[in-house]
Every structure is written in structure tokens, then in C-alpha cells.
Amino acid sequence: MEYFLEQVINGLQLGMVYALIALGYTMVYGIVRLINFAHGDVFMVGAFIGYFGFTNWNMPWPLAIVVAMIICAALGMTIERLAYRPLRYAPRIMALIAAIGVSFFIEYFCSLKFMFGPNYRVVQRPFEEVYWSIGGVTISNIQVLIFVTAVIMLIGLQYLVYRTKLGAAMRTLSFDHDTARLMGVNVDRTISLTFGIGAALAAVGGVLYAIAYPQIFTFMGIMPGLKAFTAAVLGGIGLIPGAMLGALIMGQAEVMTAAFISSQLRDMIAFSILILVLLIKPTGILGKTQPEKV
Amino acid sequence: MGVNSNYKRLALYAAGTVAVYALIKLLVLSGFINPYWQRVLDQSMIVAIGALGLSVIFGISGQFSIGHAAFYGIGAYTAGLVTKSLGGEAAAFLAALVAGVFMAALVAFLFGLPVLRLTSDYLGIATLGFGVICKVGFDNANKVIPAMGGATGMTGVPQVADFDWIFLFFILSIVLARNFVQSAQGRSCMALREDEVAANVIGINIFRYKMLAFVFGCGLAGLAGALYAHRYPFLHPSNFDFLPSVDFLIIVVLGGMGSLTGTVVTAIGWVFLLEVLRAVLGMAFMDWRGVIYALILVVTILVRRQGLFGNKEYGFLAPRVFKAKEGPNATVKG
Amino acid sequence: MRVSKWVALLTVILFSLSIIAGCGGGQAPPPAAAEEIKIGLIAPLTGDVKTFGESVKNAFELAIEESGNKVGDFNIKYVIADDRNVATEAVNVADKLITQDKVSAIVGSVTSSCTIPISEVAQAAGVVVISPTATNPKVTVDAGNRKDFIFRACFIDPFQGTVAARFALDELGAKTAAVLFDQGNDYTIGLKDFFKEAFVAGGGTMLAEEAYAKTDTDFSAVLTRIAQLKPDILFLPDYYQKASLIGKQARDKGITAVFLGGDGWDSPDLDFAAMEGGYFTNHYSPEDPRPVVAEWVAKYTAKYGQTPDALATLAYDATNLLLAAIEKAGSKDPAAIRDAMAATDGFQAVSGSISFDENGNPIKSAAILQVKDGAQKFVTIVDP
């Protein structure tokens, strides 16, 4: 039983890590209907900036997170301005391919020597790990930090989208750009801010990821990005609570497969669950059915 | 009159194909194309065959797939197993190709049965998931079939697919894909790409045509994989995972959605681009290859937002409807 | 409409031009200088294992530079090619080096999944290949056929796995072990298989064998299970970055087992704090008193500002083995180089005294090192 609970906690940690990435992913998708493949790479840049912050620049780690957020927000807005805005009214698939191109570009460019370089770097955690034993189950302060951050991000995003003027503009945009413009929404600015916020969230995810799994390299964003996006689809893409739910399911599925079936099959089972869920509920668990086209 | 000119055109295209073949052969014999560029040329045709498959699935029928390389891999492994056990004679090789195509098409059919009901990005993610599942399957395949080698890769497939074979199947694939697209079935597929509801209303069985396009396209991927297995002496699961699938997707979109011409030209250009960059950049700037490759991709999309060829077809691939217009009062029904 | 047609046409022309230019470029090799030998290097210089490729390239260039660009009566001209760790590209560049650049020998590649296809192409063309680091037996022998032009400078998996198991049983007195391995990497699978074989044959018990994928970073589920089993040994036969990551998480999960690993651990980027107390098998020890070792470490550090890792050391040895064979053969005929290479006897490389067995694998002793106080400490030498 304790073993099972311990595995639940492990799954929760992994799920929350996916959630950190999936939230930004799904928000951008919800507003502009773009699978932003470069999100995983912005996440990587965030991890590197955070690492430089608390090792090379001697910042306290919360400050490093803020710096990473600012730099990544700028990066996200730049990407949007240069690569996505010109394609806003082109077929959706074009923007997706552009996103893939941007993703490759960031990966290869950052692995050049004068950028981050190709090496794997060991991250020295900026604070001591502390372990608490509750009823035989061990929980670390890193896990708590990740849980709390993910929940704050979830609530903050919900607040932003449903309770602020910017959020209202975003929601209007997600329905129809022309109508939104007629209603006085500054389309360019709102989309730009959406990307900025998404990228800042990715940066938070990146820094916490680097602290939890203390190793970073320039291709680290691909797989977590892919899994997080899959999680977002699982929960119902475009929906903020859906991303959280999907991420938690994905995390548990992977951990439970590894713990009780076979570690070799973890990806196979996780993705089989995804396909099964989609077959039963084609728009994800929380998704509403709506006709749409590629 | 119109019929006559169609035959004339056909003869012209056939002559053109033979001329291209003869020219390349001549260049090879004279040593102007060395075995390295010969290999790159073969690779580009193999990739073009696979990309044509995705073009039919996605470009023509609008079914978003990010798992195309999985079917490429199924074709490669199946065909490889056949010749590995039967030997590399022409008959065995052809049997292997048939087996590769058949297996890829069969898996596509079984996978498509439940999954093709999904639409848009959801279908894309399901195919992506299928790609990951196949990769794990290839990684562990040696536990069931030791000859497949699992994660350590498969060797020992006779290398019998030379330029002649590949060129033959390359042309054959183009003809097949073109005829499919211009048949009534192909037009039904285009109709459902444009608007599923409308297509349904005019009596098109949506699911049937989605399935037809999917199985056809995956069969082509299987053919490409089968040729690959007999041209490249080593099959490894990482050849068939996420990134190769993305490569196919890039080719189809960059060429122009719905343009077979675009797909073929872009596939060949894309393969050569990577190799030409190698020659152009030289040793000092080798690290920049990936950067420039990505940059070319982004810039091309930004400059040509409809893809290189839009949705237009040229030459042999151009639809008959346009040609018939040349006749004085020909009214053509598809 | 017209404009787009023109652009499309232009694109076609550009593509065809680039194809022709490519072919043409390939067709104009500079007239060979009187006494010049060409050597190729294939390594992953872009992509996800770029860092391995960098080490190998650095060491290769250092070895060539040291030879003064001369071997015997020949001037060395070298060509470096990138395989991006993709098997298809590895075949393409092997073809390029052999048929276009006309090299006599190739050093490379780094991973087995690229080196195996290269070995097939090179064997068919009759060009010598020496891989610094590809450990899969299939590189030199496939289905019982020895590819006689192919050699390597590293141990093959059976030897290292066996040495690690014997050390665990005899020196550490271990009774039980658990192993984590990458299911997509033949290097770690090979080490795992032979470790298990020798460990069980010697009376030990394997409590767990867990696989992960190259891209996994979360091992909590598996490590929680292993923590319950309390093995004496946790065998982590992967490269330093993965081993470090797993080791760190294993200690987080309260696993107290002794860590054990292979030559993949040898890197200045190993997480020394996390791996404290662990042992690994290696090709040499930096504390080895032989002067060639200290010299090598000093030279590499002076030139590149970092300590050489296992990959760099093996690439340096592979290049020097090749140069020695060319010198002995006194010819740039690959067959002569092959014969000279096969006859290598007691070559004093950084990683020990090397001879080749009948399968082109080096016979050399293994060192056992311990991670202690943030450094690698020499423990013992094990002979094959």
C-alpha cells in the first residue's frame, strides 16, 4: 500500500511537470489554434537561463525564475512577430510547419558553441532537498514546490482568462478575429501577449524541471514538449483545466506502467491510453464536440 | 480529337521519362554522377515515394497524419525479413516489395478502422501516438522475431535495389498516385477535404474514402520502406520515429497541399538540400548545417505561404479537365 | 497567378541547379598531390549527440596535428563528415568519403547505429574503418562473417560487462544487483546482458532489470521499486549524463546500493557528488603512471581547456592506431593498411597496450576506477 502511494506521488510529480508545460501550450492553442512546436524549446531556453541565473550570475533562485520568464516572454513574442504573424491568415498547417522550423532553429542554434553549447550540464540545485515522511510515504520539498507552482499557474491562468479584460479579449479572439476587431480588441497586441504569457509559463516550467531533474541540454525540450502537448489533447486541447487533467493522467499512466507492468512499455501504454480516450471522446476528456477543419 | 491529343501527350511523357532515365544512366556511366550522388538520388526518389503517400492522405484527402514514418518502417522491416530469409533474387525481391506494401496497408486498415473517425489535430495526435507505439514495438521486436534485431538494429538484408528498380517504382508510384487522384475516388477524397458535411450531403461515403486514401498512402509508404531496406544496409527503429514523420509532413506542406508535383519536386529537393549544404558549408561551418536547414524551412514558408506549388499540378500530373478545355466544345464529365 | 507560376518554375530550376552543382562539385576532386593520403572522420557533429561528436573530432584533429600532417612518406589530408546520428546520413557520407573524396581509411563513427551501416558500405568498397567507440559486436562481425576491413579501439560489451560483474562479486562481495538500461541503446543493452550473465554465473542474484527510453528523465517509478528490493549493487551502464541523472534520483529515493558503471561514465561532466562512491570500468586511469597518459591529458587540456573524456581518448587512440598502421604498411592501399592494422602488436596507446583479436577488437586491460571526493581514483587493473 505504501509502495502504491509512493508511486502515486511519483506519478503526481511527473504529471505536474507535464502540466507546467501543457498549460502554456494549451493556452496558446486555445487562442490561435496553433500547435506551437517551439514551446518545448522556449522551455529549454528557460531552463538554461534559470541555470545561468542561480549558478553563474549568483541570483537567488526565485529571481532567476523571474529573469527567465522575462527573457522567454520576449523570445516568445519575437517568434510570434517574425514567424507566426505573417502566417496568421494562411492555412493553419503552414503555421504548424513554421513552428517546427522555429523549433529546429532554436535547438540547433542554441547547441552552437557561442550559445549554450552541445554539452549536457549538471544542475546544482539552488537549495537543499528536504524530505518529509508522512505515513511511510516520502515527499520532498521539490515535489511540493512543483505542486504548488502548477496549481498557482492553473488558478492564475483561469483568473486571467475569465476575469480580466485581456482574458475577455483572448476569448473573443478564439471565436473570431474579425468580430473581435469590430468589438475593439487589439488583435495583434492580444495575440502577442498570449505568446508572451505562454512563453513565460514555459520558462517557469523549464527552471523547475531543471531543479527536479538536474540536467539540461539543448535538445531537452522535444520529448517533454511532445508529451505535454499529448496530455493537453488528452484532457481537451484549448481548455486550461483539461491540460492539468490530461497531464496528471499521463503522469500516472507512465509511472503506473513502469511500476506494475514493464518499464519497457511505458510510452506504448501511455499513448495507447491516449488513442483509446480519443476514440471514446474524440475531443479529449473535457472537450466539447465542435466541427473544425485543418 | 481530345482523345487523340491525350494519347499524344502520354506518348510524350513516356518518351520524356525514358530520356531522363537514359540521361541519368549516361551521366552515371560517364562517371559524372559518382556512387555518392547516385545514392543521394536513390534516397530522394525513395523519400518521394513515401511523401507521395502522405500527399494523398493529407494533401488530397485532408487527413492529418504525423505518424507516416511508422508505415515506412513497417514496410522496411517486413520486406527486409522476406529477402533476408529468401535471398536477394529478383523474384524474392519483388515478393518482398509486395509483402512490404501489403503489411503497411493492412496495418493502416486495422489502425484506420477506429481512428479515422477522428478529425483534424486529434487525428494528428493519434497518428503521432501510433508512431511512438510502433517505435517501441520495433525496439522490442527481437523478442518475438530475433531477425529483426530490436534496438540493436537489423542487418543482413540483401542490397539489391539499384537505381533501375527504384526509378521504375518511382515512376510507377507517380502514375498510380496521379491516376488515383484523378479518378472518381480521388475527387471524392478532395471533396471531403474541402468540406466533410457537404461531401456527405452529395452522397459521398466519407469514411470509405478516408480509409481508401489512408490505406493507399500507407501502402506507398510501405513501398518506399521496402525499397529503403534494400538500398540501405541497416534498419534501426530510430529511422522510423517522430522526426522522419515530421520530414514527410514538411515535404508535403512545403510542396503545396494537394499538389503531387510539389510533393515530388520538394522531396527530391529536400534530400539534396541536406547533402548540398554539406558541400557548400565545408568543414569550418559544419555545425551550422542544422541552423541553415531550419532557417530555409521557415523562410520558404513565410515567402510562399501556399507552399512552393500552391495546389497546382504541372505536366503529366495536371488534371485532364484543363486539357479538355482546349477542345472547341468539349464538355468533360469526371 | 502568373507570378506564382514563375516562382514555381524558378524553384524547379534552382533545385535542379543545386542538384547539378552538387554532382558537378563532387566530380572535381583536386588533382592528387604526389604523396598524399586521405583519411576521413565520420562523427555526429550536429543533432542530439553532438557533444560526443565534438570530443571525437577534437581528439582526431589533435592526433593529426601532432603527426605534423605526415605519416611515413605521405602528407595527410583529412575530410570530416557529419552523420547527425542518423543511419541514412551515415551511409550517405560513407559513400561520399569513399567514392568522392577517395579516402583510404575512415575513423568513425561514434554510435553503433551509425557505425554498423558504415561498416557494411566500407567493407563492400574495401576501405579500412576504425571506430573509436562503437561497441556492438555486429560492427566487425555479422552473422558469423568477419568484416576484415573493420576495426575498433574500444572494448566490446561482453568484456566490460563481465569485468564489472566479477568486480562486484569478488571485490565488493555483492550478492544482489539491479540494473537500469536504455532499451534503445545497444551499448547499455550489451553491458547489461553480459553483466547479468557473469553475475548470475558467479552466484549473484538479479533483483530487477528495468528499461527506459533515451528521452526519459523521470525514473521515480522504477527507483521506488528498486528501493524496496534493497540490492547491493545498482548497475548503470549508460553514458555519464544519464547515469548522473539516475544516480541523483536513486539517492533521492533512498537507495543505498553501490553504483557500478562502464566507460561511459568517464567524463568531466559526470555528477561527481551524486555518483560518490561508485565504481566504473574504464580503458585507462588518469593516474596511470605511464607517461603517455599524463602527456595526453596535458595536451588535450592545453588545447581545448577541458579534461578529455572517454570518447576523446578512444578517438585519439583510434587515429593513432590507424596512422601507425599506415606507416607500417608504407602504402595507401587499404588492403595493405588492413593487414598492417590486423598485425598490430602491443601498440602503446593511451588506453593501454593494444593488439587486435581475429575479430578486429582490441585486446587490452581494463581499469577499475572509483568516484571519490569529486574525482576519479584508480582502484585496480583487470586483464582480459
Secondary structure: elements and pairs:
The complex is a heterotrimer of chains A (294), B (334) and C (384).
Chain A: H1 2-32, H2 39-56, H3 61-84, H4 92-110, E1 121-122, E2 131-134, E3 137-140, H5 141-163, H6 165-175, H7 177-182, H8 187-212, E4 215-216, H9 222-235, H10 240-261, H11 266-280
Antiparallel strand pairs in A: 1-4, 2-3
Helix pairs in contact in A: 1-5, 1-8, 1-9, 1-10, 2-3, 2-4, 2-8, 2-9, 3-8, 5-6, 5-8, 6-8, 9-10, 9-11, 10-11
Chain B: H1 2-29, H2 35-60, H3 68-86, H4 90-115, H5 120-139, H6 163-182, H7 184-194, H8 196-201, H9 206-229, H10 242-255, H11 260-281, H12 288-303, H13 320-324
Helix pairs in contact in B: 2-6, 2-9, 2-10, 2-11, 3-4, 3-5, 3-9, 4-9, 6-7, 7-9, 10-11, 11-12
Chain C: H1 2-26, E1 36-43, H2 50-66, E2 70-71, E3 74-82, H3 87-100, E4 105-108, H4 112-125, E5 128-131, E6 141-142, E7 145-146, E8 150-152, H5 157-170, E9 176-182, H6 186-201, E10 205-212, H7 220-229, E11 233-235, H8 240-252, E12 258-261, H9 272-275, E13 279-282, H10 291-304, H11 310-329, H12 334-342, E14 347-349, E15 352-356, E16 362-363, E17 366-372, E18 375-382
Parallel strand pairs in C: 1-3, 1-4, 4-5, 5-8, 9-10, 9-11, 11-12, 12-13
Antiparallel strand pairs in C: 2-3, 6-7, 13-17, 14-15, 15-16, 17-18
Structure, briefly:
With 294 residues, chain A is mainly alpha-helical.
Describe this structure in words.
The complex is a heterotrimer of chains A (294), B (334) and C (384). In chain A, 71% of the residues lie in helices and 4% in strands. Chain A contains 11 helices and 4 strands; from the N terminus they run ααααβββααααβααα. In chain A, the strands form 2 sheets. A two-stranded antiparallel ribbon of chain A has the order 1-4. In chain A, strands 2-3 form a two-stranded antiparallel ribbon. In chain A, strand 2 and strand 3 (137-140) form a beta hairpin. Chain A is globular and about 60 Å long. Chain B has helices at residues 2-29, 35-60, 68-86, 90-115, 120-139, 163-182, 184-194, 196-201, 206-229, 242-255, 260-281, 288-303, 320-324. The longest helix of chain B is centred in the first third of the chain and has 28 residues, at 2-29. In chain C, strand 9, helix 6 and strand 10 (205-212) form a beta-alpha-beta unit. Chain C has helices at residues 2-26, 50-66, 87-100, 112-125, 157-170, 186-201, 220-229, 240-252, 272-275, 291-304, 310-329, 334-342; strands spanning 36-43, 70-71, 74-82, 105-108, 128-131, 141-142, 145-146, 150-152, 176-182, 205-212, 233-235, 258-261, 279-282, 347-349, 352-356, 362-363, 366-372, 375-382. With 384 residues, chain C is of the alpha/beta class. Chain C contains 12 helices and 18 strands. In chain C, the strands form 4 sheets. In chain C, strands 10-9-11-12-13-17-18 form a 7-stranded mixed sheet, sandwiched between helices. A 6-stranded mixed sheet of chain C has the order 2-3-1-4-5-8, sandwiched between helices. A 3-stranded antiparallel sheet of chain C has the order 14-15-16, covered by helices on one side. Helices cover 44% and strands 22% of the residues of chain C. The chains are: A mainly alpha (294), B mainly alpha (334), C alpha/beta (384). Chains B and C meet through helix 2 and helix 11 of B and helix 1, strand 3, helix 3 and helix 4 of C.
